[in-house]
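Project standup — Tuesday

K.O.: blocked on the structure for the chain from last sprint. Re-posting the sequence here as requested.
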Amino acid sequence: DAGTWQSIRAQLVSWSLMRVEHLEGINPPFLRFHPTLAPYLAGQIEADELEQIEIRYLQGYYKLAGILYYLDITSPHQARDMARMEMPNLRRALSLAMEAGALDEAADFGDTINKFLDLFGHRRERDEVNEIVRKAVGEPSPQDGGPITYAQYLIEYNRINVLLDKGQGGLAEQAARELLKRLETACFEASYARLVAMSAIGSSLEAQGKNKSASQQFISAMDYAGTLEQSETVRKSVATLHIYLASMMRNLGEYVQARQNYEKAKEIFQDLKDYVGTAVTLGQLGTLALVQNDFPEARRLHKEALKIFHRLGEAKNEAVAWHQLGVVELTENWEEAERCFHESLKIKERLEDLEGQASTCNMLGVAAQDASRPGDAERWLKRAIELYNKTGAKGDMSKAYSNLANLLLNQNRLEEAEEYAHLSLKIKEMLDLSAEPWTTYYILAKISERHGKKDEAVEWHRKEQKAYAAFAGSDGIVERLRPMIEMVAAACQGNRHAASAVEALLQDLSQRDDWRNLASVIRRIVAGERRETLCDGLDATDAIIVRQILGSLSA
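H.V.: unblocked you, prediction finished:
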């Protein structure tokens, strides 16, 4: 009873058999017992009484697991502090649930425990819990003839997430589609589970670089979510789907739609007081700002997200935020960029996140190349390729191949550069335009020029220009440079003020390596040339600008 307990508690503390630990924002405190106390007491308890104690223990921690799961949305600091302290008890209660044959409860336990182990970066323990529960529940095999149980659904969903973590998108898609099919005859109310499986299919398609197919899948999942009761859980899933869809739109260059979906996700997360979801959305908006060349905004958003993730102990998301901040810093300060990438890599190595490590090694290679350290750049890029080969993430590996080809091209190692460029292109041409095939076409054009194969170089440039022109994101280049395009068109039509401004502009562009070819072609346009062949030999961006100028003059 309460009175006796208060007396005993004071004595246990005075004898150092119990330590009272206060956690910020949590009441009551955590009570840590001396490890000799439990075995001593266990020897004094009869078997029947011990069984009743263990039942109460199981029930108490099953209830706590559910509380922590939902508390993590609105009070993540407290939920995670409690989960860290209570993890041994949660693991023990999981074992008791399996011993008691309470498989649905065991699967729920496993799901909650895995959520926190994943957040804490303890992937080996997470996989261990998955395997223990899977063996107890049994494989959800379609050959068993019976409907899938709730416990089997959770086990299979966790398996799909592990496959995605390992970069095995094809296997994850196969498993997710099979799960969705089996949920049609589930022996539990499976409407929300079907939404989860539909979302998993989209994530699996994304992992394979199939952005358009993934977009369609996420839209289908959101349409289905609209038919469900709009509980907090469903609304959170819808917000997450908006983030997934926005990321696909961003990859495809459809930036307006991407922002609309990110903003919708942020609105839902803020309404739910989901701080983690809000921080994730801020980071994604930072990446969108980056691809639109709004570097101050990208830096601000990523720093804000990084601060939240670090405070929450969200190791995986913190690593992503460091990586993205490094990409932003690469535009101005390669030393700071490298520091950010190394912070990201350190976390990813601790998490044993091979695909994440590969991505950051790739960017460290780019940073080293910018710093004129080709030897370091080559080592980092080859390390990235080695890691991508282990994960099977072909879409990302194609970018590492392309970066290495560009590095070797700059060292005039043409045969090696051409080999890696073709390896990159072999993958990119199987994917959609989010794989940025035009970057590799450009490298191959430059290699052909170095070999003296002028006609071949022109063909590669034409492929480059065509691919980039078809990419929705190229519209942003046109809009940003619209004043220059209109000024050149006006100069061609006899406007003296515009002609004077264009001449000053061309003198400036002629001094810049990236714009020198464009300046030469614009001079020819001002002089009266209007041929389509003016674009031959230009890179994709220059060609779009020239075509816009010519289009303005012929309108």
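K.O.: great, moving the ticket to review. The first helix runs from residue 2 to 14. The beta strands are 18-21, 30-33.
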